[in-house]
Specification:
The structure is a single chain. The protein is of the alpha+beta class. About 55% of the residues lie in helices and about 15% in strands. The strands form four sheets. The protein has a six-stranded mixed β-barrel with strand order 3-4-9-6-8-7. A six-stranded mixed β-barrel has the order 14-15-20-17-19-18. α19 packs antiparallel against α26. The radius of gyration is 38 Å and the shape is elongated. It starts with a helix and ends with a helix.
């Protein structure tokens, strides 16, 4: 078949061009020789016959060109030829090649690394079947400043049984469980889930099974599922693990399955999963504590589900006791169905898009730097291009050569950038705040490589077009004149380079402003009193006393009291206490407050305030001063006294001074016992120092009449130990032995210093600051290189002019000042332009700022001054070289 032969011929022409050329030359030589012999037989002498044969066949070079055209792969041959020419130019000028490739690598690598994170966190679909049909259910109560509260159990039951927009709804309850009997006792992350949650998310155990509907109900066996990581680390990935038991909270639970490695429930990856069963008869409206996921019915939107679920609130209040409908309406109560992806990503969206935009500016600065390099390169080759045109090269041919050079630079730089992007991605993941969701899904995937390839080709093509436009604009005579010594290199090229350098300076200023604002934000956050002092001296860990070891509240109180006593006896320990939550841990516990002296007005919602349960010594250990009254004492705990301590923010809501709050009474919920305020503590920033300190009520960790129970005891507490050791973590081995001297089965978990907890609370700001600072540093460096290149080129082109100036009396200082003014002019124009752009763009990062305005004049002034100084420094070396020009040598060179 002819078309097969044609394809094979063309493939051979592409893969074996040298062999094809040799065969073509041999064939042409054969036919030429045959023609010569024929003419000699007709009586011509050899020389005359050879000339006549050439005339009959035509010029050999032209014949070769026609033959090559007939192969149908001329463009590939031209591309190969252009690539060889480019390689020769690279070898001839390695400095240009290295700088250009590294500039591309830096811009492409930084942008690709950030895009990898953005794709993994924001763009990649959630790893569930039909993820767009999943929503998270939360409650808003704007009248009492509560937003995105977890689902209440009564509302869950109502939605499950009566919603027409939800196909299924499930929830979970996070917690910590004590595991013993494997090695050392340990506390692990656990989730209790409704049995339908795993099937709804498409999570099937890799071995074993999930939960049945009845498992977890009172009186039934409680099975457990293991995460893949826990199965491998604690059971050696033993496939016979099914049927074995694991001792959790003092109970032996059968292992029924192992989840797949990538199994996550929203943003959680627990070690153990247990079934959760609600006793419908004991539920009431309230207790917003159940994170929930629902699957929408086909064709239903999240907005439609939100509208229907909010209309089911009256039905829930009819079916279940608890908070009356009127109170919910006063609070502005509303249920929201939020697409699960939005709920998972949360506030990370703003940070990542700001950082991605920042790296986009770095890429743009790199492109302007490359454009300056390629403009200079094009002007140095302008004579070569003009001669090639004069010899017959078409405009398209010269453009293709320039494009080949720029795209090859881009591809080599892009490949290097991918290597940098891989390392940069690992760095970003390590630097990312712990709360950044979906970190495990960040990877260098094919779409990331495609992204890098696209921007690499785009950069290469843009530079090629720019260079070819400049290189091919002039005619032969003009090009020869511009190429003479002392020429200006073309006024158009000089203006273009000046514009590009100005753009670089403007973009660098934008990034420096963003970085400066984040630095100011970081310093402002560090200066806010968090509610404790000297956090590096305080070691914290979580400890849970299980019911098997302390069945009664009295036993719980005595166990914690004895542990605190043993820890206090450690040398170099100055204070010990424990609390349900310390400082800026993520914890949520709220309750209605009824103030004895301030009854709620008709139609107003009851105030909802945050709760914490503490041991005596809590405020002394944290060095949070009491503003009035006293702290708790052990008799308050052991005798179940109805006392409370409130934060200063709570006290000032009702009384002018903290002292006036002492002795006043309030109660929580409906008919709970009245509590007497015995002290007022300093404010604590529980949600990070960027948020206002909330009103908090502190109770003894064991108390009567809480949430309808006879006696409430907080079994799990976070301990805080203040030590005089240089590093607080050095006390951990001794502290562990002190705890085990009371109960050797108690594990210490979540070990952190108070400083680490504080750092975690500002991790988002730290991450953004480091990323913007890195981008600003790269931009400043590239901008400095760009200005240096422009000014240095101008000096080299104006050598003759400067020689003449100095010959007629100009001093070295005047010449140096002239060059510095050129750099200062570029800087001034770029700074003015950059301030305008920064003024517009900095407002986009307003949500990331704290204690500083997006148009902070101090930041703008400091950054502008620093950038001007850097540009003048970059201009100084060319200026000094210009001032050292010898007039005689400069004029002789012309």
């Amino acid at each position: 078949m002819r078309w097969v032969s044609n394809i094979r011929f063309r493939i051979r022409a592409i893969l074996r061009p040298d062999r094809m050329e040799k065969e073509m030359d041999e064939e042409m030589a054969f036919h030429l020789d045959m023609e010569v012999r024929k003419l000699m037989r007709e009586g011509l002498d050899p020389a005359h016959a050879h000339r006549e044969a050439l005339r009959n066949f035509g010029e050999p070079m032209q014949q070769r060109e026609r033959a090559r055209d007939s192969w149908g792969v001329r463009w590939i041959q031209d591309l190969r030829s252009d690539a060889r020419l480019t390689a020769r130019r690279f070898r001839k000028d390695p400095g240009f090649s290295i700088v250009a490739i590294l500039t591309v690598a830096l811009g492409v690598g930084a942008t690709t690394a950030i895009f990898t994170v953005v794709h993994g966190v924001l763009l990649k679909p959630l790893p569930y079947p039909d993820p767009d049909g999943l929503v998270a259910l939360t409650h808003n109560m704007p009248a009492i400043d509560v937003y995105q509260a977890p689902l209440g159990p009564a509302l869950f039951l109502t939605f499950r049984d009566h919603s027409s927009t939800l196909q299924e709804v499930g929830f979970w309850r996070p917690g910590i469980r004590t595991v013993t009997g494997l090695a050392e006792p340990e506390e692990v992350q656990a989730l209790q889930i409704t049995p339908n949650l795993l099937p709804m998310l498409g999570l099937t155990p890799v071995i074993g099974r999930g939960f049945s509907q009845d498992e977890g109900s009172p009186g039934s066996t409680i099975p457990v599922l293991l995460s893949s990581g826990y199965w491998k680390s604690h059971f050696g990935a033993d496939p016979d693990v099914l049927g074995r038991t694991i001792r959790v909270q003092g109970e032996d639970l059968p292992i029924v399955g192992v989840l797949p490695p990538d199994a996550r429930i929203q943003d959680r990856n627990p070690d153990l999963i247990l079934p959760l069963h609600l006793n419908e008869a004991s539920q009431a409206v309230g207790n917003w504590s159940l994170p929930s996921i629902a699957r929408l019915e086909p064709g239903v939107t999240a907005a439609q589900a939100t509208a229907e679920l909010s209309q089911l609130t009256p039905l829930a209040c009819e079916l279940y006791p608890g908070i009356p409908l009127e109170e919910l309406e006063r609070r502005g109560f509303r249920t929201l169905a939020t697409p699960l992806k939005i709920a998972v990503v949360g506030e990370a969206t703003t940070v990542l898009w700001v950082v991605f935009g920042t790296m986009g500016l770095v890429l743009l600065i790199a492109c302007t730097n490359l454009a300056n390099l390629f403009l200079a390169k094009a002007e140095s080759h302008v004579q070569d291009l003009a001669l090639r045109k004069a010899l017959g090269a078409s405009r398209g041919r010269t453009v293709r050569q320039t494009l080949t050079e720029s795209i090859l630079v881009g591809l080599v730089g892009g490949a290097t950038g991918l290597v940098l992007a891989h390392g940069g991605t690992l760095f970003l993941v390590r630097m990312a705040p712990p709360a950044l969701p979906r970190l495990e899904e960040i990877a260098l995937e094919p779409i990331i490589i495609l992204f890098a390839l696209v921007i690499t080709l785009a950069v290469g093509a843009l530079l090629g077009v720019l260079s070819s436009t400049r290189g091919g604009a002039a005619g032969l005579v003009t090009s020869m004149n511009d190429g003479g010594r002392g020429g200006g290199g073309g006024s158009g090229g000089g203006r273009a380079r000046n514009v590009l350098a100005t753009v670089q300076i403007a973009l660098a200023l934008v990034l420096l402003v963003g970085s400066g604002l984040m630095v100011r934000t970081f310093l402002a956050l560090r200066s806010v009193p968090p509610g404790y002092e000297r956090p590096t001296e305080v070691l914290t860990f979580r400890l849970t006393v299980p019911a098997s070891d302390a069945p009664t509240p009295d036993d719980v109180a005595e166990a914690h009291r004895e542990i605190i006593r043993r820890l206090s006896e450690i040398p170099e320990v100055t204070s010990v206490s424990a609390a349900f939550s310390v400082a800026m841990e993520s914890w949520e516990s709220w309750e209605d407050m009824f103030m004895e002296d301030f009854p709620v007005a008709e139609g107003d919602p009851n105030p909802l305030r945050r709760l914490n349960w503490i041991t005596p010594g809590h405020f002394a250990t944290l060095e949070n001063p009491l503003r009035a009254g006293r702290s708790f004492e052990w008799p308050d705990v052991m005798e179940r006294r109805h006392v409370a301590i409130v934060s200063e923010a709570f006290a000032r809501e009702f009384w002018p001074t903290p002292e006036q709050a002492v002795g006043k009474r309030f109660r929580t919920g409906g008919n709970q016992p009245w509590k007497v305020i015995v002290g007022v503590a300093g404010d604590v920033h529980t949600e990070g120092v960027q948020e206002a300190p909330p009103s908090i009520v502190f109770f003894p960790f064991v108390m009567d009449g809480m949430w309808g129970t006879q006696t409430f005891a907080s079994r799990g507490l976070r301990y805080a130990i203040r030590t005089t050791r240089p590093r607080a973590t050095d006390i951990l081995p001794t502290a562990r032995q002190a705890v085990w001297s009371v109960n050797p089965q108690l594990p210490l978990s979540s070990v952190q210093t108070l400083e680490e907890i504080f750092a975690g609370s500002i991790a988002r700001t730290s991450f953004a600051m480091v990323m913007l600072g890195t981008a600003a540093g790269v931009a400043l460096f590239l901008g400095m290189v760009g200005v240096y290149g422009v000014v240095s080129y101008v000096v080299s082109q104006r050598t003759r002019e400067m020689g003449i100036r100095m010959a007629i009396g100009a001093t070295a200082r005047q010449v140096r000042g002239m060059v510095l003014r050129q750099g200062g002019s570029l800087a001034g124009t770029g700074i003015v332009l950059g301030i305008g752009v920064a003024y517009l763009l900095s407002r986009l990062m307003a949500s990331l700022l704290f204690g500083v305005s997006p148009v902070d004049p101090v930041t703008y002034g400091a950054v502008s001054s620093a950038l001007m100084a850097v540009v003048l420094l970059a201009s100084y070396l060319p200026a000094r070289r210009a001032a050292g020009v010898d007039p005689t040598e400069a004029l002789r060179g012309e």
